[in-house]
Amino acid sequence: MPTYLARRLGQSLLTVFLTLTTVFLLVRLAPGDPAAAYAPPSASNADLARIRAEFGLDDPLISQYWIFLRDLFTGNLGTSYSFHAPAFDVVMDRMPYTVTLAVSAIAVTTVVVVPLGVWMARRADTKRELGANVMTIAGQSMPDFWTGVMLLTVFAVLFPVLPASGFTTWSGLVLPTVTVAVLQLALVSRLVRREMVSALTSPYVTVARSRGVSEHALTWRYALGNSAVPLLTALGTRFAALLNGVVVVEVVFGWPGVGSLVVRALETRDYPLIQATVLVTATLAILVQLLVDLAYPLLDPRVRLGKAA
Amino acid sequence: MSGTTVLATEGTERPSQVTARDLARATATRTRRSAHVKLWAGAVCTALVVVPVALANLLPLPGANAQDLSRRRLPPLSEGHLLGTDQLGRDLLSRILHGGQVSLSVGVLAVLVSGLIGIAAGAAAGFFGGWIDAVVSRFLEAQLALPLLMMLLLVVALFGPSVTVITCVIAVAQWPEVARLTRSLVLVEREKPYVAAARVLGLRAWQVLLRHVIPNVVRPASLVVLLLLAQAVLLESALSFLGAGPQRPFATWGRIISDGQAYITTSWWLVTLPGLVIALLVVGVNLLGDGLRDRTRRRKGAGA
Amino acid sequence: MTPPPQSAFTEYESPSRRTLLRGFALGGAGLALGPLTACAGPTGAPGPGTLTLGLNRSLVSLDNKLNQFDAAITVQRAVRQALTRIGPRMKVQRVLADRFEMTEPTAWTVRLREGVHYSDGSPVTVEDVATALRMYAKVNGSFILGLFPELPTVEPTGERTFRLRTERPVPVLDRLMANIHITPAAANRPEELQSGVGSGPYRVVKANSGAGEYTLARNTRYWGPRPHVDTVRVRFVPEEASRVIALRSGELDVVDTLTPDSAEQLTGLPGVTVQETSGVRICQLFFNFRKPEGHPLADPRVRRALTYAIDGDSLIRDVLTDSADQAEGVVPLALEGAVRTGSYTYDPAKAKSLLKSLGADDLRIKIIWESGEFAADSSVMEAVVDMFQDIGVRARLQQFQPGGDILKWRQGRGGDWDVIGNGFPGTTGQALTSLQGMYGGTAAKERTRDTYMGYVIPRIERQLSDAATEVDATERNKKLAAVQHAIWDTWPSLWAFAPKTLLAHRDRVHDLGLLTLGSYDLSPVRLEG
């Protein structure tokens, strides 16, 4: 177990490091000039040169990279150009919003998906199940920004019952959560269905049934219990993806999370902020994955970490 | 739920308690039927979008960029404009169809490219193992952790928003999916006797891979292609929505929606209709992919 | 995938699993609870004593050393004040100073108002003014510096009096000083201040600069008349559509800097009032003045011929929904000192024949601009392409994303282009500042590519600097008028317009006086109902 953890952590560190390096290079190779985004349009080239010097963008790429690494090891991610504050703090200010949205979306998904998937498995390939299946696929097929705008139109314009943007009240969480959850339903419910179908037709369930175990216990205890690991994996992966991937939904709903921050940081070429965002979200996503893996043995005693292929 | 279905699919000669009604209600029949329904529904939805898009240039429609500022934001079913007009008085239907040509070709090309990269990388990783596998696997893992959309926006900023760049960017975003699948298929395949036989016959490893293993995994791997196409179309529209679409005045689906978003309280059709078209196409493609997969799985199940 | 059956009958360690799941749930709830702050109604409608403003740009700080835009001024001025301000009808009003006059061509005598103090009770001193000027001078990338031909120095002459001295005459110094916010000297730094006190009617009680959200409360020790509203909440709502919806539902009380489309959607709605003033920003389709001799666009007659292709009236009416004025001069007429110099006419036949007679009938035009440079920018550009098509000119568009490379292109280092869509702000309310910024290019500045799209016409630059140092107001206006006519005749823009400043507020908001510069004074604003 400790060696397994160490190996996993090592791999994760390497992944984060490579990702950061890629981003470091990409932002600097991309056209655009942080100084130009920072300075007023009337700024002279001499002004811009001074700003670039202040940001340390005059140095050759390799020494910029060296400074970046050195600072990274002392826990310093640089100062955001546009916020005039430590980039890490700016990201952490926004992080709770993104996590809130991701958590609530995953919670809603789980609450809907487990009963839905079980029902679909038990009614596999009936007309109603087919209908439900097509519905979830339809949900997955709508562009998220479009779903968001449609929900806004209905619940904030036609029937103004929910706030249109931001997070100033709990009800502001509803529309973004639904938008994100709708996308996840198809993927996860299909997984639950598949796992449940194969569990319900496997020999041990037949044996259990012949011993007189009730259908209820068979479904919820035996079959669902054995589907927990793949379900948790899927939810964990989705959660990790959400931490990175709610950019569009955040933009549509004016959600003050990391996604909308990233869009802004890109528009102002705020290099330290972009790097800090990538570091934080990538680390968090990897941690979630790791936690999910560590949770396997708790859910399923058959799993021994580091031994399975 | 019932364990008798396996019997039901076989021998009809034997006297049997299984009636035609049982057969019709049997899981296998139902699975086949639902795969069938999905295939048909998928094909119809896809065709409803793809056929008009393909024929856009032949249909008697106003030009996609022909403006008439005096006839702006007409609602659907206005005279001469089936789906109404946009903020510059351009025919919305024509813009959706012509925009679809851009969005669809980007999607199809992206899937082809990602399929090629994915199969090559996945096959190499699965067949050779070792450091190739390590590198590819690291890439696959990194991509799970990456803020994907942000990277895509960066790359589009880096190389400029042309159709080629956007195609490549989407392909890059998608190849891991194919690679992961191919790798797992190849892992199974390389243990099979025919591979050993080919080696014994003196073929080089890469010859075995190219001539014997890959042809055997291409078919199952290509099943995900339709699902990827659906994703590619969605991704392209998301990029356009965030401003990283091909240069104006090219219409793309995402851009029509993002331009129309400014008018949602007064002109609902500018956002709703193009979104419906995307959804219809993606639903169609997803259903097709799903149906095909169900059918193959069933066949494989029967063969085993 | 299918679990091996031997495990089927083993009992799970349910307590541990349950604990685990409960831990997850608690953790999630804890994380979720984190950001929630104020409580409000289900649609987030603010309470009776709270005014909520929805800004479309993030207010990074309540200091203005580096960032200042229309709505930001409103909020920044509610906390920190300057010696003067630009009031209604562009008139200078004295704020912290009760005397501010030019006593010599290069010196102004200023007296601080009796009893002005900060929200912590400490008095505003001459030293604070001197320090503020020094700090503004040290900031890199401040556009406020760009407004000043030179920064004045402070010569104290008494406890509340001092002289502002410049090298050369700066006749509009009283207006320029409206941009210098005064902060206690000891707390001022050569950077954007994230905290600290001001002398304004409000003080900051909560700030989240990362999210652009602020809560202001009435400054109980304010030296001036007591403001009516208890609490002002500032929110950052980037999506224009969301701002419109939020105002409709009452979630926001005031949204400013509206796009023409939003204004159109909000006009006539019950409970909502839309205010507009003529704007001081000019948006131009500016020609590239770096074309080599012999290129058609280097010829003013070709530039003039092209302007006939643009149907300005229909652009204003249909694309900008009447929320802009077609330019009739080279700067917006709302600016102090601006004059009418001509107007754009639509006559495609004339454009065609003129181009033909000038031998420029197979022109290809490349138009570049950055998204969001002005409202409805892409619609205007797409409409222009269509209009060019009608006179047989093939136009191509290249749109840059914010943060992209447009600056390089503007400076002629990115690639070749013919027309750029660009907006120029009129921050000081003075025509002169805008004129010098756009048309005051010199050969020396062009060497470092610091001119406006390569516009270098020496005689115009001479006329401009002559007008700039003229101390006599009447004479100065005469000279300014002359130079504006001269500029118009060089046909610098394909087309230009001045967008109106649009603001919408709920009907419960009273006495909101939108100023021409786009901001408004928060202290007289009242809330009812």
Automatic annotation (TrEMBL), chain A:
Main location, first listed in the record: membrane
Keyword Transcription regulation: no
Protein keywords: Cell membrane, Membrane, Transmembrane, Transmembrane helix, Transport
Every ABC transmembrane type-1 domain range: 95-292
Record localization: Cell membrane
Coiled coil: none
A GO molecular-function annotation: dipeptide transmembrane transporter activity
Keyword Transmembrane helix assigned: yes
Residue ranges crossing the lipid bilayer per the database entry: 12-30, 97-121, 142-162, 168-188, 231-253, 273-299
Membrane topology, from the record: Multi-pass membrane protein
UniProt-listed PANTHER family: DIPEPTIDE TRANSPORT SYSTEM PERMEASE PROTEIN DPPB-RELATED
Protein name as it appears in the record: ABC transporter permease
Native organism: Streptomyces spongiae
From TrEMBL, chain B:
InterPro entries, per database record: BP-dependent_transpt_permease, MetI-like, MetI-like_sf
Start and end residues of each stretch annotated as Disordered: 1-20
Bilayer topology annotation: Multi-pass membrane protein
UniProt keywords, alphabetically: Cell membrane, Membrane, Transmembrane, Transmembrane helix, Transport
Biological-process GO terms, alphabetical: transmembrane transport
Pfam families assigned: BPD_transp_1
Domain ABC transmembrane type-1 residue range list: 100-289
Subcellular location: Cell membrane
GO-annotated cellular components: plasma membrane
Domain of life: Bacteria
PROSITE patterns: ABC_TM1
Transmembrane segments: 39-59, 102-132, 144-173, 222-244, 268-289
PANTHER family documented for this protein: D,D-DIPEPTIDE TRANSPORT SYSTEM PERMEASE PROTEIN DDPC-RELATED, OLIGOPEPTIDE TRANSPORT SYSTEM PERMEASE PROTEIN APPC
Family membership: Belongs to the binding-protein-dependent transport system permease family.
Protein name: ABC transporter permease
UniProtKB/TrEMBL annotation, chain C:
Pfam families recorded: SBP_bac_5 (PF00496)
Listed GO biological process terms: peptide transport
InterPro entries per UniProt: Peptide/Ni-bd (IPR030678), SBP_5 (IPR039424), SBP_5_dom (IPR000914), TAT_signal (IPR006311)
GO MF terms, alphabetically ordered: peptide transmembrane transporter activity
Gene Ontology annotations for the cellular component aspect, listed alphabetically: ATP-binding cassette (ABC) transporter complex; periplasmic space
Positions of the Solute-binding protein family domain: 92-444
Record protein name field: ABC transporter substrate-binding protein
